[in-house]
Amino acid sequence: MKNVFTPIVVLVSLLVAVMTTPVKVSAAGPKVVSQELDVSLGYVGRGTTLEDNLHVGPISEMNTDVKYAASLPFNKDLLLRFGAEWQRFSFETPRAVAVPDTLQQGNAILGFDYQLAEQWLMRAEVQPGLYGDFSRLSWRSFDAPIVMGFVYLVDADLQWAFGLRVDVRSQYPVLPAAGVRWKFTDVWTLDLMLPNPRLEYDVNNKLQAYLGGGILAGTYVVGDHFGDVRGLPQLNNATVDYSEARLGPGFSWKALPNLTLEAEAGYVLYRTWDFFDQHINLNSKPLPFLQITCHARF
Fold first, then answer.
1. At residue 232, does pLDDT exceed 60?
2. Residue boundaries of the structural domains of the chain
3. What DSSP assignment string belongs to 230-277?
């Protein structure tokens, strides 16, 4: 039986770019390109995995994400954004089950930030690229999700965000979401922006501790013979929604003015591979994870 928690996880997980607060456009000064580089590496330990409530063995995971984006002012209200991202999930399985060895995406980032009014900012992006197991690259793996977000700046301590993602290949092709960031004391901040909602505590001006969640997800196409080698020919060229939800404590250290390092550990509360067209769903029980991330801003 399909787990009823799946649509809830996918709903919040696929809105990564939407919930990223757009940069406010400067009204004066030279046209300077601002750049962002984010690199993360994570490990998820082995744990029980079920297929339609039947045990299929433990599956561990390595995940890597590298994302670069640059913003160039076009005028006082408009920033043009461009960049690229590569993400890879690698799964170690004990036998030939309906889990890909890898799921990957390699995509461009094309979009803009626009200041609609003094307190309203907008971001729109299209992310064309290849999304699959990369066993054989073809146009079947091509996708171009669209994300759009709006941020309302109440003041320096409170911001609201509203977003929408469109991906016609996903089981949930149109997904709305909302979030808020509220610095309610000098040292405490409630940051409910996806994909990493957190309760943050500023230890000092360089070190921050937090308790937070994390969402990783995507929609992919597996290879031409993926199902044949697993005794499930109906899964050849199938589409799979992958998602996982995490919870745990972490630390963020501002090592340099433009470099921040993060480390966190905890549990993956939920992880699923959902071949929704074929009504085949695998999910894992809670698993320990460790994640290290580097954020650079220039």
1. yes
2. 6-297
3. GT-GGGTT-EEEEEEEEEEEEEEEEEETTEEEEEEEEEEEEEEEEETT
